[in-house]
């Protein structure tokens, strides 16, 4: 009981010791974005799809000729920018999270197999990884989206299937390090199966690095989705995304800057928040600060 209490206190101390201002800002911002996305139907002040030609390009509320009914103004079709911004976050966050789940599952599985089993399987997987890394991910996704019918499901699948290589490389490197540890060698000597060793000893020790790159990967996936939607190859109307809002407002930057500026700010803040959160998790989950070294799950 006393040991458990001391461990809890040590974990709490480590949590606050590594909670940097940027990490805290990232954590709070991601939480707020998630809350807004989940409760968007009950939060938005207006129907984000409603077109009103009489309310076209109204400035934000604090500007001259602005309206308190539209805090961030309206777009070229009279739709409320704030409402569309909140709804756009739902799609962007959904695409980012689900595509990372797909990429993470593939990358984690192949990384574990490549690093632990080695041999010809390792060589084959890593050669394919090197070939994939030679081509920019955004270019691969763009080519695939041009060839296929644009939709949310297609976009998620394509991003997931083209971004797993980073996870594979990181996980493989962690596995190569962990499998040389004494507790893994001891399990091998005692005749433990490969499945048992991977599940009980290898996987728990690579999850920290995996969680870090997955967190940052969500921001990257959101940026990829926004870029494709801006170019017209991503999520298609009437679905709302921040990239699509940027595309809608690009022709009005000189006269109605708010149409494109606010979704641009939303993309920037979200991507940076996931990056800051990932950096904080990297420090928090660093094995050097967990039980004085790599976790030994006996």
UniProtKB/TrEMBL annotation:
It is found in: Cell membrane. It holds the Pfam family OppC_N. PROSITE patterns: ABC_TM1. GO terms for cellular component: plasma membrane. Residues 89-278 form the ABC transmembrane type-1 domain. InterPro entries: BP-dependent_transpt_permease (IPR050366), MetI-like (IPR000515), MetI-like_sf (IPR035906), OppC_N (IPR025966). GO terms for biological process: transmembrane transport. The keyword Repeat does not apply. The chain crosses the membrane at residues 21-44, 91-112, 124-146, 152-171, 202-223, 257-281. Gene3D superfamilies: MetI-like. It is a multi-pass membrane protein. Keywords: Cell membrane, Membrane, Transmembrane, Transmembrane helix, Transport. Belongs to the binding-protein-dependent transport system permease family. This is Oligopeptide ABC transporter permease. It comes from Shouchella clausii (strain KSM-K16) (Alkalihalobacillus clausii).
């Amino acid at each position: 009981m006393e040991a458990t209490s001391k461990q809890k206190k040590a974990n709490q101390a480590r949590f606050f010791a590594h909670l940097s201002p940027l990490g805290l800002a990232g954590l709070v911002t991601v939480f707020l974005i998630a809350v807004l996305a989940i409760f968007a139907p009950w939060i938005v002040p207006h129907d984000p799809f409603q077109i009103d030609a009489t309310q076209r390009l109204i400035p934000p509320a604090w500007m001259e000729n602005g309206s308190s009914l539209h805090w961030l103004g309206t777009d070229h079709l009279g739709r409320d920018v704030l409402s569309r911004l909140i709804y756009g976050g739902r799609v962007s966050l959904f695409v980012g999270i689900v595509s990372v789940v797909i990429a993470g599952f593939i990358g984690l599985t192949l990384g574990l197999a490549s690093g632990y089993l080695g041999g010809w399987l390792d060589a084959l997987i890593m050669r394919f990884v090197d070939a994939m890394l030679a081509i920019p991910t955004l270019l691969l996704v763009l080519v695939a989206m041009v060839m296929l019918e644009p939709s949310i499901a297609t976009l998620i699948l394509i991003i997931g299937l083209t971004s797993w290589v980073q996870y594979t490389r990181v996980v493989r490197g962690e596995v190569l390090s962990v499998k040389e540890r004494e507790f893994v060698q001891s399990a091998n000597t005692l005749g433990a199966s490969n499945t048992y060793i991977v599940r009980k000893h290898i996987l728990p020790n690579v999850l920290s690095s995996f969680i870090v790159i997955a967190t940052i990967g969500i921001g990257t996936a959101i940026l990829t989705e926004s870029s494709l939607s801006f170019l017209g190859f991503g999520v298609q109307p009437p679905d709302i995304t921040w990239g699509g809002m940027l595309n809608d407002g690009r022709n009005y930057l000189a006269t109605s800057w708010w149409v494109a500026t606010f979704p641009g700010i939303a993309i920037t803040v979200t991507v940076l928040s996931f990056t800051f959160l990932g950096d904080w998790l990297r420090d928090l989950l660093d094995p050097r600060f967990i039980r004085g070294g790599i976790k030994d799950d006996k």
